[in-house]
Amino acid sequence: MVDAPTLLPEGRTDDKTRLGYAMVATAATLFAVNGSVSKVVLGSGLSSLELTQIRNTAAAVLFFVFLIVVAPRKLKVGRRELAFLVAFGLVGVALVQWLYFVAIENLPVGVALLIEFTAPLFVALFARFVYGEHVRRRIWFAVALCLTGLALVVELWSGVAFSTVGVTAAFGGAFALTAYLLMAERERRHRDAASLSFYGFLFAALLWAVVQPLWEFPWDVLDDSVSLQGNLSEYSAPIWLLVGFIVLIGTMVTFSLLVGSLRHISATRASIVATLEPVVATVIAWAWLGETFGATQLVGGAIVIAGILVAQSAR
Predict the structure, then answer these.
(1) Helices marked H in 43-118 — which ranges?
(2) What is the mean pLDDT of residues 295-313?
């Protein structure tokens, strides 16, 4: 783990530390935009599984081409590492993305992300009870904040105001994201961002190829155009262009920035900055898709984010 930012004689934060924070902030913003783009695509006829499959498969192919041209040596994998990379791809990549798509298909983007971003809370709990790390007592305060905030967001007193499938998928995504953060933090000490991302997407793509062979993928849907929905409903765009954005910007660039930032700052600090994503995603979904929240849900969302920040500071 990386300790507090290095200070220069003048008291300024080290340039590499600032770069790490900037990388995470950029990734969080692009992930937020990607949420609304993905929701539009999911309304086009592609299922959450099909969108996950094409995202993982295309990213794996493009990362492979990049590495084979720029740094083929980084593709080498030891026998002991192989099992870990398979697990990373299946749980940390495949399940995170599929459950996220299921969640935003059934929930407002902001609500799905608020639930999924409770992952740092589980990271801190895992570090305390499994790794035996020292975690401050404030973690219990963070648990209370997150549970209270989520109860307000989903309006628990009325029997959950949102889709049960969506809420369940979002919580499943939170646990999968917890695994991703812990596994990426561990492996980042031995492997660069590009090759780690490649193997994650490769094994995720192989999983979806077993579930649904590529020749059964509805490729013809990509030629269609789809309304951009909400406040942009008068405009349309080809589905292949939107999927291209999801693969290139919402996947390759974002995952590389997020994993690459761990060279400069700790996973704990990166996760704190990454809480920008549900905030920015909510604003974008409001401005673009017209998704709105009541005052109670806004207060609940703020409490959840506060709980996430407290959880991160506890580790």
Answers:
(1) 48-70, 79-87, 96-106, 109-116
(2) 81
- Boundaries of every domain in the chain: 15-314
Could you report the per-residue pLDDT of 172-223, keeping only the tens digit for each?
Answer: 999 998 888 888 777 766 788 788 889 999 999 999 999 999 999 999 999 9
Give the separation between CA 178 and CA 199, rounded to whole angstroms.
Answer: 18
Element (H, E) at 137: none
Query: How many other C-beta atoms lie within 10 A of the C-beta of residue 284?
Result: 20
Greater confidence (234 vs 189) lies with: 234
Q: Which string of DSSP letters, residue by residue, matches 195-243?
A: HHHHHHHHHHHHHHHHHS-GGGS-GGGGGSEEE--GGGTT-EEEHHHHH
| Interatomic CA distance for residues 279 and 114, integer angstroms | 9
Q: For residue 4, what is the DSSP state?
A: S
Q: What is the pTM of this model?
A: 0.84
Residues whose CB is less than 8 angstroms from the CB of residue 211 and which lie 6 or more positions away in sequence, other chains included: 49, 53
* Residue 251 tokens, joined: 């996947």
Whose CA is closest to 309, among 285, 286, 279?
Answer: 279
Specify the DSSP class assigned to residue 75. Answer: G
Orientation angle between helical segments 15-42 and 48-70, nearest 10 degrees: 140
Cα 304 to Cα 115: distance, rounded to the nearest angstrom: 8
Half-sphere exposure of 34 (CA within 13 A, CB side): 27
How far apart CA 22 and CA 28 sit, in angstroms, is 10
Residues 6+ apart with CB under 8 A from 14: 5, 6, 7, 8
Q: Residue-wise over 220-245: b if at least 16 C-beta within 10 A, else e?
A: ebbeeebebbbebeeeebebeebbeb
- Beta strands 225-227; 236-238: pairing state: antiparallel
C-alpha 299/C-alpha 305 separation (Å) is: 10
Tell me the HSE value of 189 on the side-chain side, using a 13 A CA sphere.
Answer: 9
